[in-house]
Amino acid sequence: MPDYTDAHARAGIRTKLPKLDTWPNQFPGYEITIRVPEYTSVCPKTGLPDYGAVTIQYEPKKLCIELKALKLYLLAYRNLGIFYENAVNRMLEDIVAAVRPAWCRVTGEFTPRGGLTTTVEARWPRRSGNTARSRG
Q1: How far apart are alpha carbons 29 and 41 in whole angstroms?
Q2: What's the pTM?
Q3: 50 is catalytic
Q4: Active site residue 43
Q5: Residue 51 sits in which domain range?
Q6: From the candidates 3, 50, 94, 104, which is the catalytic residue?
Q7: Quick one: which of 21, 97, 30 has its CA closest to 59?
Q8: In angstroms, rounded to a whole number, what is the distance separating the alpha carbons of residues 16 and 132?
Q9: Residue 133 placed within a domain
């Protein structure tokens, strides 16, 4: 099988996905946790399906994520070729752009493949020294 390429590494990062709609938050200072136990996407190199659970946690300021829109957004990953790490970071960036929360954390816990499990966690604000990539 050929080596991983830059195209594999970038796969899915700029794909147009459904809009994350929001609604006005009415209360300050609380946390929202959304668990998606049936996340699926596709490995951009092998085309094999990837499965896992995604947990989204955030503290809303002025806006909250509308859950039906979030469901449609996440379903768009089903046939998208994207690595786990990119999917989790893309979700974080899209959620932060939509709701501008006080903070946000997206965690992906992916099912075993070849005896290995993978957990990816991305946080906003990013840890010092890390900067968000540009979609330029």
Answers
A1: 33
A2: 0.90
A3: yes
A4: yes
A5: 18-124
A6: 50
A7: 30
A8: 18
A9: no
